[in-house]
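Sequence only, no structure available. Ideas?
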Amino acid sequence: MKKKHITITGDLGSGKSSVAKELCKMLGYKYFSTGNIQRAMGKKTGLNTLELNYLSETNEDIDKFIDDQVIKINEAHDLYVLDSRLAWFFIRKSFKIYIKVDPIVAAKRVMSDNQRENEPIIEDVHAKSLNLIERRTVEDRRFLSKYGVDCSNMDNYDLIIDSTKSSVQEIAEKIIMNYEL
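Reply:
I predicted one. Tokens follow.
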């Protein structure tokens, strides 16, 4: 059986990036992150991630630029783990994973991540959880309007994992176990 790309989506702060990077190490796959692209675009334009999401609702070029880079991976000879909200939709043959997390745990993770660039600075964990939910709402609304895609429909995914009480290593091992079936 030919292996497929692995696409990881899910809640903000669920550990998608960490899990994707761990899977790349374990499997020898290449890593791709649309979040990194989006943060770089935001930094270049002076916008944080939430502001760039609002701008993306009216500026088609932002999503087109990101989507085109994802779509190219369909033709790649190398295998990728893609950390992306919509890669599961654009990568035709992929093992589709959704990682969910408790909103307060997500907010704590994001607030303690010193490597996360271009994130709105919010000191209160409850306010940060609301900020993450707002960003998710803006993205979901845009993706439903633009592509007819409901990211919250769990039927879209091959595997759903809750990362609230699991380590990156545990999640990666569970993914590999299900991926290699």
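The domain at 5-179 is CATH 3.40.50.300 (Rossmann fold).
Hope that gets you unstuck.
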